[in-house]
């Protein structure tokens, strides 16, 4: 079988990635030979119908789930070959995460949440980066508060600062605006967009929302566990059309 070529300089790449859940009659082939690269300093959105494998692809590329076969490359590291101990270190030191449900630790202040991953890996937070991120995100007045005392938008901005504090090779964002009103959602997307331009951050975001995907440089479309197409410089109309075509083709 021919394997599609993949940009070996990509920050993150999947090569012929297969993920099968379960076995026998109940086996589900969630990823069916995905080959795709995510370029450095680019903002890519992953889209596709429900069940197309978006979360599974992100989880395998982030070392949160193990693939059945193929490679999940972060820089030069094939995550499919690493021990759980190494994967924990990779996630903490080389990857930033932003989730729909924020996933902040409720007993810690905003500031402690932001610096925790660095402290766990024995690194000292960069004071300039901390000031830059918290000022840009407008949360300097909220740093002593616990997540329960913050709005959803403020919690997600704390999560964004946490994700970027370690200068990660990639930020994986899983429906980062899913729990936010449209104004807070737009602020989060604009921040992600600007972090690509100003900090050279690489971002991979799973979303159902064509409006969110329009902030990205590129959209990768999945269907039935395979790459079904991609769009460069997407806008809401082109993303909506592509998703409709996928739905019709099924
Ligand atoms: N832990 C699991 N056990 C069994 N099947 C699973 C598991 N996780 C996902 N699947 C199946 O794998 C396929 C891909 O799921 P995945 O969650 O990656 O899709 P998705 O595109 O992210 O969907 P959605 O947009 O609904 O979140 C689906 O058929 C799903 O039911």
TrEMBL record:
It comes from Paractinoplanes lichenicola. Residues 12-249 form the ABC transporter domain. Pfam families: ABC_tran. One of its GO terms (molecular function) is ATP binding. Keywords: ATP-binding, Nucleotide-binding, Transport. InterPro entries: AAA+_ATPase (IPR003593), ABC_transporter-like_ATP-bd (IPR003439), ABC_transporter-like_CS (IPR017871), ABC_transpr_LolD-like (IPR015854), MacB-like_ATP-bd (IPR017911), P-loop_NTPase (IPR027417). The keyword Aminoacyl-tRNA synthetase does not apply. It comes from the Bacteria. The keyword Lipid biosynthesis does not apply. Signal peptide: none annotated. This is ABC transporter ATP-binding protein. PROSITE patterns: ABC_TRANSPORTER_1, ABC_TRANSPORTER_2.
């Amino acid at each position: 079988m021919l394997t599609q070529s993949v940009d070996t300089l990509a920050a993150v790449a999947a090569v012929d990635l297969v993920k099968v859940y379960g076995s026998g009659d109940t086996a589900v082939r969630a990823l069916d030979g995905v080959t795709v690269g995510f370029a450095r300093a680019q903002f890519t959105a992953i889209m596709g119908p429900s069940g197309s494998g978006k979360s599974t692809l992100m989880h395998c590329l982030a070392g949160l789930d193990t693939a059945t076969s193929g490679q999940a490359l972060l820089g030069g590291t094939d995550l499919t070959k690493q021990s759980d101990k190494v994967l924990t270190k990779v996630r903490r030191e080389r990857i930033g995460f932003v989730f729909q449900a924020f996933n902040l630790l409720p007993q810690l202040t905003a500031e402690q949440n932001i610096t925790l991953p660095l402290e766990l890996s024995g690194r000292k937070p960069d004071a300039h980066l901390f000031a830059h991120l918290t000022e840009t995100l407008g949360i300097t007045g909220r740093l002593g508060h616990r997540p329960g005392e913050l709005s959803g938008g403020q919690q997600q901005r704390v999560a964004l600062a946490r994700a970027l504090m370690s200068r990660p090779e990639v930020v994986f964002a899983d429906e980062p605006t899913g729990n936010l009103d449209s104004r807070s959602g737009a602020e989060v997307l604009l921040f992600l967009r600007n972090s690509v331009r100003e900090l050279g951050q690489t971002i991979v975001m799973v979303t159902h929302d064509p409006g969110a995907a329009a902030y990205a440089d590129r959209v990768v479309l999945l269907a039935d566990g395979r790459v079904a197409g991609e769009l460069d410089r997407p806008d809401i109309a082109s993303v909506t059309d592509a998703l409709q075509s996928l739905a019709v083709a099924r």
